[in-house]
Amino acid sequence: MVKARYFLALADSGTVTAAATQLGITQPALSRQLRRFEKELDLELFARAGSALVLTDAAHALIPTCRRLLAESARAGQAVDALRSGNVAALRVAATPTTISTLLAPFIEEAGSSIPLLTTFPVSHYDVFAALEGTADLVIAPIPPGPEVASLPLGSVPVRAWVPPSHPLALECGGSTSVEVARLLHERLALPSRRSVSRGVLDSFIGRAGLSLGSHVECDDTATLSALARSGQAVALMTELQPARLVGFDVVDGGKSLDGVPLVAAWSPGHYAREEIAQIARRFRSFIVGSLR
């Protein structure tokens, strides 16, 4: 496992010198370990390009396997620590950047020390379940998982239109909590890109209404979308629960409402902390439901 870590350090840093510095060992010591790694695997991992050492095709193909092995080793160490102490100290959660910023971060803040320390890392919604094979203990996804994982539906987060209270749309709608999609499309909109699930939900709704997008800009950063709305430059369409200094409206087409983005929590059924993870998922579901009231 140590040699695999040394190999990945070289792959990530690009040179033996940089890798040795990163690992805190001498360059000759690292070179010896890498040669032993090659011999043990009976693979040619390195080739010379002048004075530089470059990775072969076999080495590039080996990188994902080494990363997975190191992640599993780290997870095994965490499992041993948890079993010894009876406590789960920390867990890693993978989710889309929007889910992290709009839902997970507020949940972590509210839950405080009543749950294990949660750290997050962003992945695309297409890759979220693959994170369970790497370093994620729990994933939050907008697409349903397969039967090989344990999961808990978290409900649906609405895609709403957000404007400052002084915006003409807010004044026009008065005390209403909804806006017709045909009226909304007369405004400049700030939307997530087509890579996002929420944008797919919105585009489908507009298409079913027999309408098409007009003036709009795209951005996948929720903080920027909120800033554009607060500045009055655009109406933001997003899944933010309650952005500061903005008024939200449900988007409707007559008696039909814009669907929300469904979310699900998933984890490995054999995870050493599966009971704690399931409890966190249930609390996260309650947090979402409570925030939407």
Quick synopsis:
The protein is an alpha/beta fold and 293 residues long. It contains 10 helices and 14 strands.
Strand content: 15-25%
Order of helices and strands: HHHEEHEHEEEEHEHEHEHEEEEH
What characterizes the major β-sheet? 7 strands, mixed
Structural class: alpha/beta
The total count of strands amounts to: 14
Low-confidence stretches: none
Q: What is the residue-averaged pLDDT?
A: 88
Detailed description of the structure:
There is one protein chain. With 293 residues, the chain is an alpha/beta fold. Strands 7, 8, 9, 10, 11, 12 and 13 form a 7-stranded mixed beta sheet that branches. A hairpin with a 2-residue loop joins β12 and β13. The mean pLDDT is 88.
Which keywords apply here?
single chain, 14 strands, seven-stranded mixed β-sheet, alpha/beta, 293 residues
Spell out the blueprint of helices and strands:
Layout: H1 2-13, H2 16-23, H3 27-41, E1 46-49, E2 52-55, H4 57-85, E3 90-95, H5 97-111, E4 117-122, E5 138-141, E6 150-157, E7 160-163, H6 168-173, E8 178-180, H7 181-184, E9 189-191, H8 197-208, E10 216-218, H9 222-230, E11 235-238, E12 247-253, E13 256-257, E14 261-267, H10 274-291
Parallel strand pairs: 3-4, 3-5, 8-12, 9-10, 9-11
Antiparallel strand pairs: 1-2, 5-14, 6-14, 7-11, 7-12, 12-13
Helix pairs in contact: 1-2, 1-3, 1-4, 2-3
